[in-house]
Amino acid sequence: MKWQISAQSFNPGMPTSMVLGPRAIAAATRDLRRALGTQIRQLRLDAGVTQTAVGRASGVDRSHLSRLEAGIANPSLEALIAVGAALGSDLSVRFYPGSGPRLHDRFQAPIVEALIRLLDRAFIARPEVAINGRIRGVIDLVIRDPGHGIVVACEVQSELRRLEETLRRAGEKADALFERSPGDRGARLLVLRSTRDTRALANQFQATLEAAYPAPTTDVVGALRDSARPWPGSGVLWARVERGTATILDAPPRGVRLGRVASGRPEGRSVAGTHDSEGVTPGRAHVRASPLPGPLPAAGSVREGHDLVGVSDSRVQPRSLPP
Predict the structure, then answer these.
(1) Which residues pair with 284 in a beta bridge?
(2) CB contact at 8 A, 226 and 120
């Protein structure tokens, strides 16, 4: 059984700019009542019992049960739980994703747009990819490199209200996506809007985020711009949004240690025009042509201004460039 709040549950003082008007809410409630009534009646008939017997076992008045089956009474959760238990069924209350929320994160669309514009032509980008089945949800952007068998699930967040929930849901949706393409190598990207709060959280939970997204930011950006570069694995990207326009940063914002390169590693090829949290500078973003082996250094062992190279995701193994 599935249940949804009725029109009467809404605050009558809410503004008139609701995403659904009172008539649409009333119609949806009526349809849901009828669907519930039909399901209750079918469960009762399958069990071969009368309304009187179900009412006696559940404590719900027989006349009220009759109205429930007819879809003309608003059932309470208590009544549904009791009737379901009497008929050997459990009540499940949950929301199922539809075509997407009516209320959107206003920063997400420009960030996705900037990320798509960044991509090498070899990549195929698909925004808003629905995941159905055991795990339900929507992945903000899926990037594929058919030539190298790489699929990347991208989640875009303008703020991190619950880090653990964000990581868990992103992992579940990515795993469900990878199950669709068992022959491809999967990776995940977390794209964060650079704000004081997100930068502070990235530093506070650096080790946690590095465990889920170990690749250096500069390596990920370089691989997205040039598909001939080895894919470094799952990583965190940063975006700056100003006046409705987003820019994907080539390196972590100033003051953020997450995704930077560890000290003592040799520098590789460079990409001119590095972005940072203050804007575009004529510096260089160092990107290795081929990864180096070695474990990810522990949190606190990285120093700002250096890049970590050669960290690969457990799902994605780096590929070598031609000589």
Answers:
(1) 272
(2) yes
Kindly report the backbone phi and psi dihedral angles of residue 308, in degrees, each rounded to the nearest multiple of 5, phi listed first.
Answer: -95, 125
- CATH 3.40.1350.10 is the classification of domain 108-287: yes
Q: Which of 63, 6, 75, 9 shows the shortest CA–CA distance to 37?
A: 75
Q: Is 12 exposed, middle or buried (0-12, 13-18, 19+ CB in 10 A)?
A: exposed
Q: What is d(CA 316, CA 297) in angstroms, rounded to the nearest whole number?
A: 19
Q: What is the pTM of this model?
A: 0.56
Q: Walk along the chain (323 residues) in steps of 10 and give the mean pLDDT of each run.
A: 41 50 84 91 90 93 93 91 92 66 70 92 90 80 90 89 85 87 87 92 92 92 92 92 90 91 45 36 34 40 36 40 45
Contact 40, 47 (CB under 8 A): no
* Domain spanning 7-86: CATH superfamily: lambda repressor-like DNA-binding domains (1.10.260.40)
Buried b (16+ CB within 10 A) or exposed e, 146-167: eebebbbbbbbbbebeebeebb
At what angle are helices 62-70 and 77-86 packed, to 10 degrees? 100
pLDDT score, position 27: 87
pLDDT value for 142: 92
Amino acid at 104: H
Cβ 28 vs Cβ 67: under 8 Å: no
